[in-house]
Amino acid sequence: MASEVFQSCLSQCKILELSKDTRALKEAFEAGDLPAVAAKLQSTLHSLENVRLDIGVTGGMGSGKSTFVNAIRGLGDEDTNSACTGVVEMTVDPTPYPHPKYPSVVFWDLPGIGTSAFRADKYFRRVQLFRYDFFLIITSESFTADLAELALEILRHGKHFYCIRSKVDVDITASRSRRPSSFSEERVLNQIRDDCVQRLEAQGLRDPKVFLLSMFELGKYDFHLLEESMVRDLESHKRHAFLVALPNISKPTLERKAASLRQHTWLVATVACGANPRPVPGLPEVACDLHMLTRALEGYRHSFGLDGGSLVRLAEQTGQPLHEILQVLQGPKTKVTEALVAELLGQASGDASAFSQKLLNVPVLGSLASCGLSFATVYRMLRTSLDVAVSDAQSVLVQASLDSPDRKLPDGQWSQPGA
Ligand SMILES: Nc1nc2c(ncn2[C@@H]2O[C@H](COP(=O)(O)OP(=O)(O)O)[C@@H](O)[C@H]2O)c(=O)[nH]1
Ligand SMILES: [Mg+2]
């Protein structure tokens, strides 16, 4: 466990660059100056929590751009702050849609492409290309020359884009009903994918990737591949913001999110023990910032869709009674309080002292001897709470899919419940 923590410290190097003062941080660490380390990491955490991410959603008219902007934020088309959707293209100007829980992650619903006199450079001047971290280009039909031109223009500016072919549910339903004897879902999907790739190649794009989606069942088809690509291409601090904000629609998403938050526990534990530590009521040998830990645990509930608002929405979307969803939770069923955090710290302190002994033998952390037990207790409590949140999120998804067996998909994926 101790070496795992040390590894985790090292893997934070990229994140630490955010503090713009890595050398001072290293020196403070080596001198065992925990308050100095904590102060620097506090500003790192603050930057991580507030990092801005702008995602441009563009493509054909009526292709599902606005529906995607809603679904990726865990919203239905009729929820408050959802983008207007419908058979008529509604978006005239770029419209920002901040994530309801993480407002610095913004999805931009961009005007659709479909006029005869299209010019990619003009379009991007109008929507201000430089504003976006990356683009999603969506079409519900073949990729046209205009869409390929759009992609090439994005490339010219050194930005990433991802091509999405939407409404594949429609193709599958049609194929199943029209040609039932020879129907193969995989074959239909491969045909669509190959056609899209060929058309993009014919327009001069090299090795294009196309992701097949249904905006009505976002977790299905190629969503996990799309997510994997987007996450891989983002810088580390933006990657974390993006992952935390993703809707909890599939097991792979939950696992990626958990891995990113796990890397964070070290940062949170250091700051909680180093900045404003106070003895924990009923546990005087442990000193930490209970308020900060309460926020961290609330953050886990929100990110995994276990907070009251998300669970109520999920119950509405799936028709499952709320009390049945709540029954499967092992972790907190209501807002996290400081009293609960103190209780969890008490449970974690039982086996933390052996762990803190091991920690003291780890170079770097050994110099923080004065807070060894507090750090070990807090770290252990955070890791356990995170594991419980991940397991609760998985149970909730299974529970949410019970009522309608169609919702449960192979490969541990689920169709769309809320964020
Ligand atoms: N079957 C199906 N319909 C979709 C999908 N995505 C969007 N739609 C429908 O297509 C229409 C246009 O969607 P919208 O999001 O408004 O398209 P936009 O013009 O690109 O923003 C709406 O009636 C949506 O409900 C999808 O993946 N599958
Ligand atoms: Mg629209």
TrEMBL record:
This is Uncharacterized protein. The lineage of its organism: Eukaryota, Metazoa, Chordata, Craniata, Vertebrata. It comes from the Eukaryota.
